[in-house]
What does this fold into?
Amino acid sequence: MEHSSPMLKQYQEIKRAHPGTLLFFRLGDFYELFYDDAVIGSKELEITLTARNRERGNPIPMCGVPYHAASGYIARLVRKGYRVAICEQTEDPKKSTKLVKREVVRIITPGTAIDAQLLDARDNTYLAAVFGTGTGMGAAFLDLSTGEFLVTQFTGEGAWNRTLEQLEAFAPREILFPKSLEPLFKNEARREASSHVISDEKDAGAARFVVAGEQPALNALDEWNFAHDRAAELIRNHFEVNSLDGFGLAGRDLATTAAGAVLHYVRETQKDDAAHITGLSYFEPAEYLMLDAPTVRNLELVEALDGSRQRTLLGVLDETVTGMGSRLLKQWLLRPSMKLGELTARLDAVEELKNALILRDRLRQELKQVADLERLMARISLGRATPRDLVALKISADAIPGIKELLGDATASLLEILAENLDELADLRDLIGASISDEPPVNINDGGTIRSGYNAQLDELREVATSSKSIIARIESRERARTGIASLKVRFNNVFGYFIEISKANLKNVPADYERRQTIANAERFTTPELKEYEAKVLGAEEHIAEIEQELFSAIRQAVAVETKRVQGVAQGLAMLDVLCSLGEVAARRNYCRPQLTESDELYIRSGRHPVIESTGERFIPNDVYLNNSTDRLLIITGPNMGGKSVFLRQTALIALMAQIGSFVPAEEARLSLLDRVFTRVGASDSLARGRSTFMVEMTETANILNTATPRSLVLLDEVGRGTSTFDGLSLAWAIAEYLHDNPQHAAKTLFATHYHEMTELAKLLPGVRNYQMAVKESEGTIVFLRRVVEGSASKSYGIEVGKLAGLPRTVTDRAREILSNLEANELDVMGKPKFARHLPSRKRAPQPSLFEAANDAVIDEMRNLDVESLTPEEAIEVLRRSKTRLL
It folds into this structure.
């Protein structure tokens, strides 16, 4: 460092204060990275790596990006999990005679992003903190881009696993935790990475902690960041309260500590109080229907197996017109409610909106004018809003009176409450309307943000600046008349300011009061006291205009920021209205019915349909289903591949989930008990990249179901046990079904699809088991899948027929039928193993196989005709010797 320039010394000091970040160091019009940061940046951003001080023999790696385009580069780094520190010049270089002062003004991390390039309007971006002791775990979840702040905690055995469930549900981009918990995260990463115990450091380092299919950024912090007393004081000071009891945190020290760690981290990274975080809510996971990651994935609730949003339940239901509404609908879908009163209110509102076409359409048209107020207020509060953001707020607020008027005749209680609580924000509308131009620039420094008439001093300065052309023209005309020089011109450039230009031929007519400024090839340039005075006035006015506009805009933005909580309340109400309108729109368009939710143990669906498949326009055969916790507890479903078993299982779960967000459902009638969990074990999900076989994944997911399902749960099992040998798989499937039927703690309502036809015997042995099958019609050697679920059990699986439909060569399917016929006849070879079919009639028989086949038959015939009881030991030995000779 002793050989570094003052600028590099400044860089190194700032870098030491912000370890673990890539430091974007502002130098003029560029952000520069140096040393290791430059090496990483050039690789990740695919930009040129150069060097500083190359001529001195100690080159310093460096690379840079233009400051006006930096947001795109920063977004790429943050998406890859890097933390980026933005270091700005905090004083005007023109006013400094030494090294310009620089400070880190913000640290952008995966969990603290608020910039549009890093956000999807339809998804929340959560920052999580986890804190644990020997007694339990606390977890906090904050979406900095909206201000949503939630906390919970768990105690006793299983606290870590329950915390993992919440991490799966919220899918945070970044997780904070004390270094003492680092082994937990590493062990979980190892468990996910392989089905084996990892012993060497190389494998352990390759393991990655995964939640909801993604790898969040993990940030292990020093223990002092999780001091309870400090956390509690920070929360009290932030919300300006004397007690945390009002947030539900009384006696919940673990949750309080996690919340305080999140709040401290946000303040440190944003260099701001984050005043838009106006509330904190404690929640009990028991208030929501729990969905584990395999279930969310298998049911394709929010993301299809190909990674798209299309062909998902969210894709079908999301007809929202605002980003706020889309995010809220996704939250409802991933955390369905278990509160009967809340769901009834939602269903009442959806029913009214479904039936009122004109009202629904007009509300949706008004809502289309509403910006993403939650994220907009976050930017305003953090001082990063542009003039156009304020105009967007005004346009959004202008729509509120019309929305309230439309809701004036609503009868559903939830719609009435929304209308009553919608603040019209008249004062903010007036303030922005009077102060900000209708079409302001993106950047305040571009000028023209403040409306004329709002500030007298600004108007006067603008008059001076805008009238300069006419004033200059008057000066030029007067000087031409005074000097008699017709070619005299008054001009301006950035170096010399305003000047009078006279050709050399006319220099003899120059007045004595002209002062020479510059000589050029064919002319001389002069100034006058009057021109100097005007120049100072005009240039000063333009500079002063920029300063005043900046000051006024900052004051207006701050005045709006003070009302953040009011605007957030409006945003929440409009988001809910948007979701209700969306559900009403989908219900009307797709002919959904209102489900009847009960506290009973029955689940009945008449003529149910799969919402996603139906939405593609494919012809769909509706089916009924009935489940309870006594007589119809476990349904064994048999039938052919492609017969519709998996669709039937999935549609049952999807209909139940739709009802528990307050949506109408694709059925003619639905009477549904409230569920606490939905589990799926559907299809093969090989995780070879993590070293886990299909069967290992299957057994791991099944184990989770058996250990956590309750009588209020719905379990979908599809082909459990098919990943191993027939006898192993059948034994496991049978035992699993018995467990789900018999265990009083875990006897969930279960749909069990299988090709093990032996499983249908369970209906004769267990009182709560019923057999159903997928109907098939056979005609002239072909099969037709009827897609109908009927009582009874299938006699075969029609796998060969499905292979034929898939295009297998006919010789293969004919051969398969011959082998199947032999196996079904239970014929055994001399070794006691199933005898495969000998040959196809059309196949030429090679002589050697024929001899073997003949020898085998002869030996078998002889064995069958032996009188074993009368054989002497010597005769038995001779028979064996002769048989062995003939078989070799």
In short: The chain has 31 helices and 27 strands. Confidence is low (pLDDT under 50) at residues 194-206, 685-692, 839-852. The two ends are 86 Å apart (CA to CA). Residues 167 and 211 are 7 Å apart (CA to CA).
